[in-house]
Amino acid sequence: MSGIDLWDDDDFGSSDSTVLEPPPLLICLIAAAEQRSVWQAGLEQHGIQVCAEQSDECQLILVDERCSDYPAQLARLNERPERPPLFFLVTNGAEPDCIRAFSAGADDYVHLPISPEALAARLKRVEVKLRDTSSMREQLSQSSQIAFQSMSMNAELGRILQYMESSFACQQFDALAALTLQILNELGLHASLGVFHDRGLEYFYDDGIKRPIEQEVIENSRHLGRISDFGSRTILNYPHFGLLIRNMPVDDPLRYGILKDHICYIGNGLEARCQAMITERYAGERAIRIQATASVLQQMIAEMEHAKLEVTRSSTSELQTMLDALYHEFSQLCLTGTEEEVLMRLLTESSDRLHALFRNAAEQDQQFQSLLSGVAKTLEH
Fold first, then answer.
1. With 80 as the cut, is the pLDDT of residue 163 above it?
2. In the structure, what pLDDT confidence band is assigned to residue 301 with cuts at 50, 70 and 90?
3. N or C: which end of the chain has fewer CB within 10 A?
4. Model confidence at 104, in pLDDT bands (50, 70, 90)?
5. 219-257, pLDDT tens digit by residue?
């Protein structure tokens, strides 16, 4: 071997490399004057440094309950937004002393007497354990927050399903608009709604303040696509309605995305119901027109039937009167028996033919009446 050091980096095999010592544990010490100096001197010899009460770098609070005014000092420290863990030195191991420590907010405790060296070792272990516990609590808090957001989202989705179910009971656009604006308010959103149909635009708003500019924007933004964003305001466009939301949470991207999904769910349900209501209203108006037409036809049929009955009755009466007059006049003409018989036969045949014509006309009238009645019933259905 040549003895040449192949590893000449400082991190490997350097003779003057130093082992980094962990930084000292910073604690805030609450103790009477006679104990404070003893604890401070002993703990600093074992890697624990005492800092001022106001220090933001304090990692742990050590309380010697032999200090008479420790409750007042703790009260000042508790005013801080995030108080460090609290470690108590209790005078003995009796249960009332432990209860007293925990009632004061202690995270851990140790019995007196104890040497500064043992106390320093205990404080270091406690600080590590409490730091890990704090990290675990933070993770649990984040998990709880995520779980809460999931439950909140599920609750909101359930409310949207209720909205869709309730929308089927709405028969007027004002009731449907009120229901839609209500669920948006429950989601923390304020909006205006315009419904488009064959009679034009119906405009609705949730706060009692009619804003003409919003109505114009809803009408003029139909070519901008399904969703258009204008800062905190969002416009949702569908064939039969336009929805303008005034206060989207642009500062909270997660909530913003969730609400965008919710709004699309609501929009799909609202569009389906609007289309169905427009179809129902058209069908209802068509049914009214058909019923009016059927009523007019029925009245016409009744009038025609009455008129034809009057004509038939009058014609029959006139024909019978004419025949009676002819029979009477023939008796005055002094005709021979043969001539009278021929003439009477001709008159009888003519009468029979006229009666046949009347019967045929009556039958045709009855068929026409049946046809019109069938048409009227079809229109009613």
1. yes
2. confident
3. N
4. confident
5. 888 888 888 888 888 999 999 999 999 899 999 888 898
Q: Is the dihedral of CA 259, 159, 142, 130 positive or negative?
A: positive
Residues paired with residue 191 on neighbouring β-strands, in sequence order:
245
